[in-house]
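Methods — Computational structure assignment.
A single polypeptide chain was analysed. Its primary sequence is given first, followed by the predicted tertiary structure written as structure tokens.
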Amino acid sequence: MKSLIIGGAGFVGEYLAKHLLALGQEVSVTKIPSQETVSSGVSVYDLDILDQEQIFKVLQKTQPDTVFHLAAQSSVAVSWNHPQMTADINIKGSINILEALRRYEKHSRVLLVGSGEEYGQILPLETPVREDNTLRPGNLYAVTKACQNMVGRIYAQAYGMDLIMVRPFNHIGPNQSPVFVAADFCRQAAQIETGKKEPVIRVGNLSAKRDFTDVRDVVRAYAMLVDRGLAGETYNIGSGHAVAIRDILKVILEQSAAKIRVEVDEKKLRPVDVPVMEADIRKLQKATGWEPQIRLEQTVGEMLEYWRKVIK
């Protein structure tokens, strides 16, 4: 089995590559020229997904049975500051990939990675949110991912392409960029422990509740869905339980060796923030039997230890 991970040098791509290699697959990954990948045992290709011909050439070289599309501008915060870039990468880039796959002579199975952010303003009676819920995206990143999902469904129906769409909710783990909240808190705590920062963690909205899952559990779900999911369908991926951001911070503070104060930083507050996002994962479980295996406390502890090693 040959797998191609488009966007394979990012946080999730590294974990997915490692998981697929452990399953005995031949793995190729793409990256942008400025990135480096630490994955060993994989073939690596530079790729700009805004260039359809480049995508087609990589498909011809790698001859994948399965394609995982992870390449994206994946930060909600960045999408507010760079909406055009977010739209170009997440919408135009995805269409280029689908068009290149449509031209490609091999009938590859494709996983399009979206986001739980697509649901947006979830009503109280809609929690936990199902895949057929009305989408009310509340930020530019969410809009682009909702568009990608709709485009994927159209390509599956119109062209008979073997596409599966997923909406992973918040996934976290060691080596995640500090642009994301849990990694940001862990980095700040590690900086404080080493005396490189005053004993204050600056935070945004702590009342928001999110569905956090370890990235290693998420990539297991990706692989299982490619094996057992139905073409043209969308699947939520999450723990099925929402946790307040303040509870994530509490776990970090409990595991930190330093005494730390907490202060609100107005710059970290989003223009629009959804109060609760919790996934209904019954469709995923019915299709694959998947269950999350790694507890939140373990994930946070490993993230904190990662930042201690980076900052020491």
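Note: The mean pLDDT is 94.
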